């Protein structure tokens, strides 16, 4: 019981950290993180839902993809937990954006700085969720499901879908806004960087763990 509480606590901490990563990426103004780029772009076009609300809708779609892929292997309890956590994440994203709303970004260098910070924070939040081993957000769980079905590495699946999210966001912005408002060069950098930063965290953790064991 104690271990389960610790794992869920680790996951929730990772969830909040990931939402802060999305908020910093959005604040940079160079295009938000890939997984949030489609909801963010749609929120610029339609005020039917907030940024977090559109993020929730994307999560529902990602859950549906998992169910279709895994079928009998799909665990109902895990899907229920994912659904609850997805809505929590949507609201946390709105909260994180509110927390840093007064931060000023004065020049392009600061935009790059906040974009890089957002990538590292987001990757760390996702890595913590993976280490929690109790649940995953729908987007990451969908990547995991595709990895299981195809036999491809999770990190590579994530990078591929990040690129897809960016492409869809670009189309939405160009068609409805006539410009790349929600997706820019920072989005492309994040699409490539976040998955690789997760690999970096995992590599560093394993090195430290093995070093600790030897001592």
Layout of secondary structure:
Layout: H1 2-28, H2 34-45, H3 51-70, H4 76-99, H5 108-132, H6 138-150, H7 154-176, H8 185-214
What are the defining features of this structure?
mainly alpha; 215 residues; 8 helices; 0% strand
Helix-strand makeup class: mainly alpha
Helix content: over 70%
Q: Oligomerization state of this entry?
A: single chain
Low-pLDDT segments, ≥5 res: none
The number of helices is: 8
The ordered H/E elements are HHHHHHHH
β-strand number: 0
Strand content: under 5%
Rough outline:
globular
The chain-level mean pLDDT equals 87
End-to-end distance: 30 Å
Radius of gyration: 17 Å
Describe the sheet with the most strands: none
Total domains, how many?
1
What is this entry, summarized?
By secondary structure, the protein is mainly alpha-helical. The chain has 8 helices and no strands. α1 packs across α4, α2 crosses α3 and α5 packs across α8.
Report on this structure.
- The longest helix is centred in the C-terminal third of the chain and has 30 residues, at 185-214.
- It is built from eight helices and no strands.
- It starts with a helix and ends with a helix.
- The mean pLDDT is 87.
- Helix 2 crosses helix 3 and helix 5 (108-132) packs across helix 8.
- It is an all-alpha fold and 215 residues long.
- It has one domain.
